[in-house]
From TrEMBL:
This is Arginine--tRNA ligase. Keywords: Aminoacyl-tRNA synthetase, ATP-binding, Cytoplasm, Ligase, Nucleotide-binding, Protein biosynthesis. Residues 468-587 form the DALR anticodon binding domain. PANTHER family: ARGININE--TRNA LIGASE, CYTOPLASMIC, ARGINYL-TRNA SYNTHETASE.
């Protein structure tokens, strides 16, 4: 049995909509009722105010007519016209508690599986082989992972795709260099205690040396180019070297994914090399459809609103990044059955995606009913708001960043609870630091740049992962205490009249599904991150004014409060999990 529980907010909106359909001329009936949370009531509907002029009516009159129709609903305690024509709507305690009881009993907290018709192909992370993952890959990795979790929870079939950069002329250069310098030991490099070193770190350095030699030495350049051809032709020795490099890199990526606790596994890798055999077919199809033009020997596609054409095949016959991504679209639709293709990639690739989407539409690979989106992410800056660089001016390694967060989290946690054993401290600091980094990322709108400020991230106060995790542990501890005292598990009792802080908390709990819907619609995990912060704040306010286990609390009030605690804990834990953040029992 899958029980899906609608939120009362959704019903309020539906009720105002229905009233609008009755009192407004048909052409206005489907306008947005503009239902929002409000300080003066639970919800405020502003449609009367925004539409009155256009329908030739006075806003207060119009609001009054809507009120008369809406006010009958059982779930509402009061509906009033206020100010110039707002509709203030307050939910009945009993209706709210009823809804919460259904949520608490339903699988998945009763959230409707609204995305069940969707096959979402989510392309995220996409690090490059023979290079270390750096801070630039963090955003795509975490945002993509949260989207995969949320859409999956809402019933979508999710296919994760890690489009690793494992193909291209740079590998000819690196392999040639390694062949010419057999003593350049990179394989046996151990990762040091400080997290530096390791085979990929060594390869990254060798790659830079090879690039210098390539630029400086025309003969090496020629040998490197011949090596590219050998790789493409499938020359055994060359391919074996390439495979080894790819294997080492993927092992290193996997280490970071495991440390971060993201869902990506080796099975999700579908790198650039995978598409290589299909590129000629992509070009042929584009040519057959009359989309390809010749430009100084290169094959390009001209697009209406793009200042430059898209390069599909270079004059030397080589294919570029665009051809590969066209192939990803064709594959995602034809082979994976995707109807929502989501590319979580740096905003600086916006033009690239605009061009491949447009081309794919024209080629018929993206047909009606299939959505392709570039879920663009901004840049992470350093704490000073400037581009994030190491002291020596290099790119910041992801592993170093996580180490830094771990160190700071450990200090903060140790200070808060000096009695922790070293093992407990290790574990809590790990959970807190990863949660801190993820929450800082996921509470920011994805297209915005933000500053990586570890001190702010690991704070127990303010909008941080640590605050949310800590709130979760506090509730867990209340529930443990209740169990010890034999106070029972709690039960929602619709006959109990709620204090304002209880009512406010109940309202938040009812909106969990709506927050997830928001993420699915906008592909912005920060809507969930903001919701969870609001929920934690509402819980904190509730717990300050409403004692739960104190002796003078009447039994049915206590049971109701315990049920509120339990559902808050479950909602926080589920919400954090959907952001990929662990919800610890102690902290
Ligand atoms: N490897 C690329 C980079 O580091 C990201 C790949 C993104 N995915 C894609 N289908 N283009 O910039």
């Amino acid at each position: 049995m899958v029980e899906q529980v609608r939120s009362l907010a959704g019903e309020v909106e539906a009720a105002v909509r229905a009233a609008m359909a009755e009192v407004l001329p048909p052409e206005f009936a489907s306008e947005d009722p503009l239902v929002r949370r409000s300080d003066r009531a639970d919800y405020q509907a502003n449609a009367a105010l925004s539409l009155a002029k256009r329908v030739g009516s006075n806003p207060r009159d119009l609001a009054g007519r809507l009120r008369d129709l809406v006010a009958g609903a059982d779930a509402l305690a009061s509906v009033e016209v206020s100010g110039p024509g707002f509709l203030n709507i307050t939910l009945a305690d009993a209706a709210l508690l009823d809804r919460l009881a259904a949520r608490a009993a339903a699988p998945g907290l009763g959230v409707p599986r609204s995305q069940a018709a969707q096959t979402a192909v989510i392309d995220y992370s996409g690090p490059n082989v023979a290079k270390e993952m750096h801070v630039g890959h963090l955003r795509s990795t975490l945002i993509g992972d949260a989207l995969a979790r949320v859409l999956g929870f809402l019933g979508a079939r999710v296919v994760r795709q890690n489009h690793v950069g494992d193909w291209g002329t740079q590998f000819g250069m690196l392999i040639q260099y390694l062949f010419e310098h057999p003593d350049a030991a990179w394989r046996d490099k151990e990762v040091g205690a400080d997290g530096t070193g390791g085979a990929v770190s060594a390869l990254d350095a060798l790659y830079r040396t090879a690039r210098q030699e390539f630029d400086r030495d025309a003969e090496f350049k020629q040998r490197a180019q011949r090596r590219v051809v050998a790789l493409q032709r499938g020359d055994e020795e060359t391919v074996a070297a390439w495979r080894e490099i790819v294997g080492e890199s993927e092992a290193a990526f996997q280490q970071i994914y495991e440390r971060l606790g993201v869902l990506l596994t080796r099975d999700d890798v579908l790198g650039e090399s995978f598409y290589n055999p299909w590129l000629q077919g992509v070009v042929d199809e584009l040519r057959d459809k009359g989309l390809l033009e010749d430009s100084e020997g290169a094959k390009v596609v001209f697009l209406d609103d793009q200042p430059v054409p898209m390069l599909v095949q270079k004059s030397d016959g080589g294919f570029g990044y665009a051809a590969t991504d066209l192939a990803t679209i064709r594959h995602s639709v034809r082979e994976l059955g995707g109807n929502r293709l989501i590319y979580v990639v740096d905003a600086r690739q916006a033009q690239h995606f605009a061009m491949i989407f447009e081309t794919a539409r024209r080629a018929g690979w993206l047909s009606e009913g299939i959505e392709a989106v570039h879920a663009a992410n901004g840049t992470i800056n350093g704490p000073d708001g400037r581009p994030f660089k190491t002291r020596s001016g290099g790119t910041v390694r992801l592993a170093d960043l996580l180490d830094d967060a771990l160190r700071r989290a450990r200090e903060v946690v140790a200070e808060k609870d000096p009695a922790l054993s070293p093992q407990e401290l290790d574990e809590i600091a790990r959970v807190a630091s990863i949660g801190a980094v993820k929450y800082a990322e996921l509470s920011t709108s994805r297209a915005k740049d933000y500053s990586f400020d570890v001190d702010r991230m690991v704070s127990f106060n303010g909008q941080t992962g640590v605050y949310l995790q800590y709130t979760h542990t506090r509730i867990a501890s209340i529930l443990r205490k209740a169990a010890e005292q034999g106070a029972g598990e709690g039960a929602f009792d619709p006959a109990v009249a709620l204090e304002p802080a209880e009512h406010a908390l109940a309202l938040e709990l009812d909106e969990f599904g709506a927050a997830l819907e928001g993420v699915a619609a906008t592909l912005e995990p920060h809507q969930l991150a903001a919701y969870l912060y609001g929920l934690a704040k509402a819980f904190t306010a509730f717990y300050e004014s409403c004692p739960v286990l104190r002796e003078d609390v009447p039994a049915e009030v206590r049971a109701n409060r315990l049920a509120l605690c339990a559902l808050t804990r479950a909602t926080l834990a589920q919400g954090l999990l959907l952001l990929g953040i662990e919800a610890p029992q102690r902290m």
